[in-house]
């Protein structure tokens, strides 16, 4: 099992916030064609040794696509770790240029609705089940009825956790660490936005399973001028691979997600596993953006 995982955020729905996504994925508004592409990328990931797959209710049909892939390869499930997330509903319905793509709700009712849907689409329970995008204004960490329902899910054998977004990821993790329900976290960390690092280290030391998402800053580290981009170009390695390699080098990271939308992108991402350690440690993660500015820029990215 490699430390590299595959997230299906860009493979279960036709539009996503990754820079250049629309140019990479042809026929993405046809669910059948997108499912075929998703299966091809999952096959490439499996062949490359990737054994952690990440989905969510808001990732369009990602859970269903992963479930149908698993039904074709039932012997693979015991060798995989699957994470899924609840709390957002996908509402764009594969419509081109939809104004709203997902709607967030962290409630007892949403959990009761989405947990059975996840079980159905995946064909069984995920190994990790996370509240999607917990921020300081979310009621998820203070709703005792919701926390009790999550404890019940945990008793069935699924690890309960949170995913985080926004400039206050560390605050959310510190609060979640005190509750006693959670043992898994998925957070944004990359050289432009490393502010969650100390909190992720604390979570890891507490026995939590730590997953890094958006290690390429939604494609910004590939498409924009940056210290990492210049280092990658000078050393003739892929910018995407170097960004992933920097995240993989963090001692508290159990899995770093690739967001590859094609098999070719997945192959380029897997090159992160063979990048020289000296090049990785030379990247200056101190030349980061102020978190509020980073998340403002992310909010301005177009769904394509």
UniProtKB/TrEMBL annotation:
<feature type="domain" description="NADP-dependent oxidoreductase">
    <location>
        <begin position="28"/>
        <end position="283"/>
    </location>
</feature>
<dbReference type="InterPro" id="IPR023210">
    <property type="entry name" value="NADP_OxRdtase_dom"/>
</dbReference>
<dbReference type="Pfam" id="PF00248">
    <property type="entry name" value="Aldo_ket_red"/>
</dbReference>
<dbReference type="InterPro" id="IPR036812">
    <property type="entry name" value="NAD(P)_OxRdtase_dom_sf"/>
</dbReference>
<dbReference type="InterPro" id="IPR053135">
    <property type="entry name" value="AKR2_Oxidoreductase"/>
</dbReference>
<protein>
    <submittedName>
        <fullName>Aldo/keto reductase</fullName>
    </submittedName>
</protein>
